[in-house]
Amino acid sequence: MLEDTVKKILNARVYDAARETPISPASFLSRRLHNQILIKREDLQPVHSFKLRGAYNKMAQLSDEQKAKGVIAASAGNHAQGLAMSAKLMGVKAVIVMPRITPDIKVQAVRSWGAKVILKGDAFSVAADHANELIAEHGYTYIPPFDDIDVIAGQGTIGVEILRQHSGRLDAVFVPVGGGGLIAGVAAYIKYLRPDIKVIGVESEDSACFKAALAANKRVTLDQVGVFAEGVAVAQIGKVPFALAKDLVDDVITVNADEMCAAVKDIFEDTRAVSETSGALSLAGLKKYIQQTGARDETLLCINSGANTNFDRLQHIAERTELGEQREAILAVTIPEHPGSFKKFCRTIGKRMVTEFNYRYADPEQAHIFVGVKVKPGGEDRQAVIDKLETSGYPVVDLTDDELAKLHIRHLGGGRPKEVFEEEVYRFEFPERPGALMNFLTHLPADWNISLFHYRNHGAAYGRVLVGMHVPNGDRTHVEEYFDKIGYRYWKESDNPAYRLFMA
Predict the structure, then answer these.
(1) pLDDT tens digits for range 366-392
(2) Please, what are the domains in the chain?
(3) Is residue 204 among the annotated active site residues?
(4) Between the CA atoms of 79, 85, 90 and 95, what dihedral angle is there, to the nearest 10 degrees?
């Protein structure tokens, strides 16, 4: 299977549409991390993503009869743009079914290549079902985003370019993983010619379907998938990619949202390219690899797989970058409620920069402050700040890794309610579309009172929402039954320390 895949890669037809993208040295990052770090620039493709390679190669294999009937795909992202451009170049009708929550920038990009866009449903599964209905009705040929050997071969041409463009020492190549088409193609070619080079997959920790499949030695379907890195938000790795990659990949590293945001900044500082979060995923994994192994003086390459991000999402990415680089600690600190306390607290902090300070009067004796402090990367300096504060008599709760604190509490004002009542607090992901809130409210019983609500648009397909509810005692045990009917992802946060300190 490996040899056949390599032959397909070498014979792949991609360059009528795709470009041979350069490898950029990351000079600033290399000096900082004491390794030679290289970035393969798939963000420079005409559709700003590697997906063009696989889509075009698959279409190049179609018969004249198939091309005459047209092609179709269900996609909310980069595959849709790659297919749309490929179809335009070949003069083939293309239909793309996209969920209604797809950001306008991606819808308009697909339409700009001449494809017909159909918006259907609020989830990818609904869009995929509708695509299958259209296939049955019109005879379109479905072009899969990753689970196809010709698509894999097209993506594998990236591996060909890497070895041709960099013939010297190369210790490891880091590849983002969603459905697995990219890593299957790249790993097949590199391991066939240079088995000494490590191929390491990188996944978002909330959509790590490849790592789960390796652990189970079979493909598994994740119960839930995070959407922060939309380009790799896949619940199950493809059948063909897994059959190839499971024996070729040396390791899989998972990273969180903050680490991806930090990698977006790193790519920008070295190349001036604004990567999408899934595009920076492999660099985040590369950095984590160095941290975990202590690698030094090695040559490490990562693939910037795409740069299709909404402009209004950049604020959120920038906000989380300092946390991803471990350069900011978010702390809840209890100080005495009397004049001069803040000045004394700052004196204890010393010459460190205070990045954030949120406070509202709530108690005549004690004040709970939400504070951000600049620290050095690595975690040791953060712990030193906490130790110094506690030694000085300040109770401290470390909220640096608390999603509720970072997404909501730091932006909320208003303090505590005057009236004491039982409140249930949940964090949700709502689809970014008109009617999502009304759908939520419609499913709640009429006698439930919303006591807290916070939402911010992050330019993504899903909005992060914090909701507090005054639930009659008789219904409290059934709260989550109502939420399950709504179908939105949720987390119970009633006992979250950030909420208890600042809002309860």
Answers:
(1) 888 888 888 887 778 899 999 999 999
(2) 2-50+148-316 (3.40.50.1100), 51-142 (3.40.50.1100), 326-401 (3.40.1020.10), 419-502 (3.40.1020.10)
(3) no
(4) 60
